[in-house]
Amino acid sequence: MGLVLLVVVWLITLISTYYFAVDKWHMLPLASRHGAAMDSWFHVTYIVVGVVFLAAQLALGYVVWKSRDRSGARVTYSHGNTKLEVLWTVLTAIIFVGLNLAGSSIWAESRFQGAGTNAVQVEVTGLQFAWYFRYPGPDGKFGRIKPELIDASVNNAVGIDDADPASKDDITVGTLVLPVNREAELTLRSQDVIHSLFIPAMRFKQDAVPGLMIHMHFTPTKTGEYEIACAELCGLGHYKMHGMLRVVSQDEYDKWIAQREAEKQQ
Amino acid sequence: MDAQPNAAHGHTEAHAHAAPTGFIRKYIFSLDHKVIGIQYFFLALVSVFIGMALSVLMRIHLIWPEANLPFFGHLKPETYLTLLTMHGTFMVFFVLTTAPQSGFGNYVLPIQIGAPDMAFPVLNMLSFWTTFVAFVVMVAAFFVEGGAPLHGWTGYAPLSALQSAGPGEGLGADLWIISIAIFCAASLMGALNFITTILDLRAKGMTLMRLPLTCWTWFVTAMLGLLAFGVLLSAGILLLLDRNVGTSFFVPAGLVLSGTVVKHNGGSPLLWQHLFWFFGHPEVYIAILPGMGVASQLLSTFSRKPIFGYRAMVYAILGIAILGFLVWGHHMFVSGMSPYLGFSFSIMTMAIGVPSAIKTFNWLGTMWGGRIRFQSPMLFAIGFVSLFVSGGLSGPFLAQPALDIQLHDTYFVVAHFHLIMGVAAIFGIFAGTYYWFPKMFGRMMNERLAQIHFFFSFIGTYAIFMPMHYLGMAGHPRRYSQLSEVSYLHGLMPLQKFISIVAFITIAAQVIFVFNLFWSMFKGKKAGDNPWEATTLEWTVPSPPPHDNFAGKIPVVNHGPYEYSVPGAPKDYVMQTDPAGAVTAAH
Fold first, then answer.
1. Would you call B486 and A239 a contact, using CB atoms and an 8 Å cutoff?
2. How far apart are CA B375 and CA B382, in angstroms?
């Protein structure tokens, strides 16, 4: 039985490790600036955890087989070994806490500082079950929102108050369009329950919380189309609260904005 | 730490009560901790089957969302979410917070410390029946108009705070909250009982440092429960008020649901998360600590070797418990909480890996150099260690907020907590069942069936939950009723299918356990007092024990709980009650 356990534990361990190593179901290809440091730190953590996983499970299998009851075997009566105890406690603390501290600058960089002054401004509204993206237009200001004015049938799903002059040049769309290699500042809000804007290719996730205006920033580095998924249970349509991010050249972005502004004035 | 329990004899007199007569007094409204423990165990058994049935339906829907099922018909997305909510709720509360602590703890603790019963037998009976009422209310949620809630076992507001936020969020959600509130009250009663019993009713010679590690985990788990369940109860009351009375603890102004402006204002959704997780994180340690105690007990007994580093094990239990109250924010890294708090919660979370690692090293150290007997309780104890390592090691990813950004609310998290709670803790329950069944019912469970059950469960659960890490890393969000609407998920369907198929097989294999359990109660080989040749006090009394455990003769303890293979001793185990001087090493 000891041998069977060793074989089973080792096989499970080696097969799992194999699939982790070959990265068969991998993260979506990275397309943002801050994501590079995250992916690389992910790899470091992977290796540290992977070594511990292999060591612990292979040791477990081995110990269970080696220490099986057999005739002539003698037990070492011992209540432990304080030196060893201290050694592995200190080592574990250094590895675990050290890993965390070493990677903490990545979190600090993306979250302790706000966006730069040249960032593209977009207000993101989550609601059951769609995402809306509002651009402030040339005046750089978002117009006032009044919940009573929400009416998707007249194209005002977000409830913008047209009485506010700042609203005149606001553009609200269902697709997030951003220029490549330029920082984007997203202000996340929600109309009803908690949602979460998850753009896996950008390594971006942030809850949209009713009652809060949450500022986040990232810089897309590759043009293309990227899926947005909702990542906080928000009701029966949670699985289909799907959106799209289109990253285009700065020229294309300017043209797109100008086109939208022109349509709005008509 | 080594102080003798005071006036233990006076207390035992006060708690002795005559054996009850009549079916109702003996088996229904019993004051006997052994009957109550078994009642809790069977409540958990029924609950785990409800939980498994719900998960089967979930797994079917995920891979065949358009299927028309017999009896259930076509499952709607909201039904999937209801199944998911109730699956989590039944499993976390009525299985993992019930069987390990209230089930085994109630049955075994008084005997292991040398007491005739718990400190408060009437409170004990009340705590079981209150839990039972909570269970009935929870089941009722399925059958009221709108059905059971869909807001997840975590019940985040405002989804859970507004009746119009979704189907099932009406009366069903109110019943869910009420059931949990009743459960909180029952848990607080149980916690008081456990703590008082351990402090006051230990037999002469049973110092704190001679307590079996099972008792230490039941003790510390009770303290966690005492401090955490009150917060959940409060949060539940506030939520009930927001939902029904128009208060706004959790609901801010300006919300619009189904075209109607919601009248609440001034509340904070994050407040719910802080309150819930302040309870929720200690809760997961409540779920795992007793299993760790059982693992320690069994690894030592079946290796015929003392536990490696008893004192360190006690400190690790205490460390896990204290740190467990300081890490709740790691569920909230992307919630909108201050990123500075994210940093501090993250450091504390990595720190809690240290006592967990100490325990793992010590389990390995216990087995090393032993003479391992691979009887069924030991198989599950070894399985527990492997599963705890696997589940625990996804922690360092999730504990780092920069990495958690990508993994939060994906299947990576589902893999993590299932391996620890949904498998390791369950293996702790299985291990305890195979181990203490002979004591409870006077018969052995069938070993061959137990081995088959073990291998199906061990390999099966790894096959179910290891792949979920891959799903999570690929960006698959959790709580999605189907994969159809997000393109990058389509390529993950083969893996989801694999998981579902393996899940069906593994769940089917649990029938072997249930059959073994019930068949052995009547037809199992008769068990003696000490079939495992173990050292602790429950093995000094008959199987099953008399009503007052020790037939009036309270034991005197002379040894620690893990005196196996003591050099010079006549047998390879020295019972805790054996005469002093039977052990050459000081303990």
1. yes
2. 11
Answer whether B485 touches A (CB < 8 Å).
yes
**Pick from B361, B406, B458: which is nearest to A8 by CB?**
B458
B224-250 tens-digit pLDDT? 999 999 999 999 999 999 999 999 999
Range of the domain at A239: 120-265
Domain count of the fold of chain A = 2
What is the per-residue pLDDT for B130?
98
Look-up of token digits 């720190």: B351
- The answer on pLDDT for B393 being more than 70 is yes
Whether the Cβ atoms of residue B317 and residue B221 lie closer than 8 Å to each other: no
Residue A6 sits in the same domain as residue A134: no
What part of A 138-197 touches B (C-beta under 8 Å)? 145, 147-148, 150, 159, 191-194, 196
CATH of the domain at A164: 2.60.40.420
Query: How far, in whole angstroms, is CA B336 from its chain's centroid?
Result: 30
Q: Is the ipTM of this complex over 0.85?
A: yes
B330 DSSP assignment: G
Identity of the residue numbered A151: D
CATH no. of B299-525: 1.20.210.10
Per domain, the residue ranges of chain B are: 25-267, 299-525, 530-587
Listed in sequence order, the DSSP H helices in B201-268 are: 213-244
Residues with Cβ < 8 Å from B383, sequence gap 6 or more?
A: B427, B454, B457, B458
Please name the member of A25, A27, A108 whose beta carbon is closest to the beta carbon of B495.
Answer: A25
Alpha carbons B130 and B122: distance in angstroms, whole number: 12
Contact call for B308 and A78, based on CB within 8 A: yes
A196 beta partners: A207
Percent of chain B predicted with pLDDT > 90: 92
State residue B13's pLDDT score: 44
Please state which CATH number belongs to domain B25-267.
1.20.210.10
* Minimal Cβ distance to B399: which of A100, A234, A238: A100
**Does A58 share its domain with A147?**
no
Q: Are residues A103 and A133 in the same domain?
A: no
With CB atoms and an 8 Å threshold, state whether B350 touches A96: yes
Buried b (16+ CB within 10 A) or exposed e, B457-472: bbbbbbbbbbbbbbbb
Number of Cβ pairs < 8 A linking chain A and chain B: 329
